[in-house]
Amino acid sequence: MDDDNESKPIPSRRRFLSGAAGLSGAALVGGAARAENLKNLPPNVPEWTRALGDGVAVRPYGHPSKYEANVIRRDVSWLTASKESSVSFTPLHALDGIITPSGLCFERHHSGIAEIDPEDYRLIIHGLVDKPLIYTLADLKRFPRVNRIYVLECAANSGMEWRGAQLNGCQYTHGMVHCVEYTGVPLRVLLAEAGVKGSAKWLLAEGADAAAMSRSIPLEKALDDCLVATHMNGEMLRPEQGYPARLVVPGWEGNVWVKWLRRLKLGDEPWFAREETSKYTDLMADGRARRFTYVMDAKSVITSPSPQAPVRAKGFTVISGLAWSGRGKVKRVDVSLDGGRNWREARIDGLVLDKACVRFYAETDWNGEELLLQSRAIDETGYVQPTKTELRKIRGANSVYHNNGIQTWLVKRDGEVENVEVS
Amino acid sequence: MSKCRSFAVVAVCFLLAAPAVAGERHLGLGRAASPAEIAGWDIDVRPDGQGLPVGKGSVRQGEEVYMTRCAACHGEFGESAGRWPQVAGGTGSLSSDDPVKTVGSYFPYLSSAFDYVRHAMPFGDAQSLSNDELYAVVAYVLFLNDIVDEKFVLSRDTFAQVKMPNQAGFYDDDRETAEKPFWNAKPCMKDCKPPVTITGRARVIDVTPDDKAARHGAD
């Protein structure tokens, strides 16, 4: 609905923002801009300034403006055999700040969304414990709780890009990531209630979905910073994100953040479930595979400009992006305009938190020349986001998972942006 | 009223005395899980066989289960129908440009396959197989991978006899040593490489969903 106005003039607001370059900017406008309606522009008075709008509670649960209807999760139909075992991607190109709106958080389901009646929710803790316990949701909500903002990245994020630039849009190349605030019970508090036996070394976390998705987690991590979360961004978890309770495993690959959590079992060995053997293991060039590669390394991506968010005008331009690390805080983000030959430090604005996203900006005056945009994240452990070439040199191209290589966007003379790889 | 007030005061004192979140003391929430409750959900199986249910199934019985419950997606010979996972074949492919990860070529343990089928298969009708059917269909998938012969019967007793070909094909995460150069105190900032050329373009491959509405509209 938004792409049939290419011949119409660009909105005056944009012309104003682009200043003196406005007129030349008109030639740069891509197809996505909506046409303006002169009746709404000064000196005229628009309808919304004359007539009453919807009253309170007409929209008892608010939604984004109808003009933002294109900012949605999207999937790639050829990727998977069914929608129930598939993925949809966060529209990173259209977002700012660090918090992902709950309804836009990417989805990865293995057997669809479990729609759990909260009255019938149960969590069992058993195995190597003194006293096996069963909790209702009401029980979980009585526990002392904490609030934490964490990034969650699927291990397969950017997995389609191992062999080369493939998908044209950061929603698709990097959209299996989100960053929200969780409210939950520290897992160690729940486990202490059951009394973990000294022989326990591992924890099995299992979901209540039709895959009963399960993963093994070392007890050390479980007792460190994991949560059983009931809320995200202040409200109850969305069904797509594990309502009414999910595991939060800060800094680790999304697959271990078991949704619809129904069972926690203590044991003395890992279980080697399908999702930690056949899947979520990283195949190397020699045919052997790394396993238990839980930590998500530092990574960043420029979200605008990007293929779905082209440059609209010459002149002052804000380059914006997202960076994160599963190893700690992001310490610095660098940006390159020439494909990684020269770098400058970007400006991080907003919260800088442990194992969470940061928002970075780099401002530039774009004169219409081609740019090769890159960003690289550096975390507090000194880890520097590698190039894709550096990654492939060590891991080959069959890994599927954990692709945190530096992304390159080609900004063309007309402001369109393409996913490319460079020397 | 006074009763309420004194109760409130007690509660406040108690909360202040309690550790912040540490859970040093038992909060007494929840209740004991009964063995029957646990048994209904306790379906995991480990490589050493811990968790295996009572039951058995032959390759022959498994063929029947497989053809009616599995073949539509996974293919009659495990070769996959469409884009569903291939469960057989792929031997020797893991270091090629087209690795095919199947039960035979990739799964390190028999339990990884058994546990998964028990949890999640058949797709859309999970946990509907009897224990005997479960043993049988896993036996048949082993047969499709030439790991057992057609007379094989899988049970709790024969489980440990099965050795998966790729058991030694995995090693623990070694990034902190194998990728040590990625920890770099002084990343290059200026003239880090010769002028850059483009080596690959997404538009050449052209597999992005054709949906212009995905582009960010007027901002």
Approximately how much beta-strand content do the residues of chain B carry? 5-15%
CATH superfamily of the largest domain in chain A: Oxidoreductase, molybdopterin-binding domain
Q: Give a quick account of the main beta sheet of chain B: strands, pairing sense, barrel closure.
A: 2 strands, antiparallel
Helical fraction of chain B: 25-40%
Indicate the overall shape of chain B.
extended
Sheet-strand content of chain A, in percent, reads: 25-35%
- The CATH class assignment of the domain at 55-156 in chain B is Mainly Alpha
Chain oligomer state: heterodimer
| SS elements, strand count of chain A | 23
End-to-end separation of chain A in angstroms reads: 38 Å
Uncertain residue ranges of chain A: 1-31
Secondary structure layout plus pairing:
The complex is a heterodimer of chains A (423) and B (219).
Chain A: H1 12-17, H2 22-26, E1 86-88, E2 107-109, E3 123-127, E4 133-135, H3 137-142, E5 146-153, H4 170-174, E6 177-186, H5 187-194, E7 202-207, E8 214-218, H6 219-222, E9 227-232, E10 235-236, E11 246-248, E12 261-267, E13 282-283, E14 289-291, E15 299-304, E16 315-324, E17 330-336, E18 344-345, E19 347-349, E20 358-366, E21 371-379, H7 388-395, E22 408-411, E23 417-422
Parallel strand pairs in A: 3-12
Antiparallel strand pairs in A: 1-2, 3-4, 5-6, 6-9, 7-8, 7-12, 9-10, 9-11, 13-14, 15-16, 16-20, 17-18, 17-21, 19-20, 21-22, 22-23
Chain B: H1 2-17, E1 31-32, H2 35-41, E2 56-58, H3 59-69, H4 71-74, H5 110-120, H6 131-144, E3 153-155, E4 170-172, H7 175-178, E5 198-201, H8 202-205
Antiparallel strand pairs in B: 2-3
Helix pairs in contact in B: 3-6
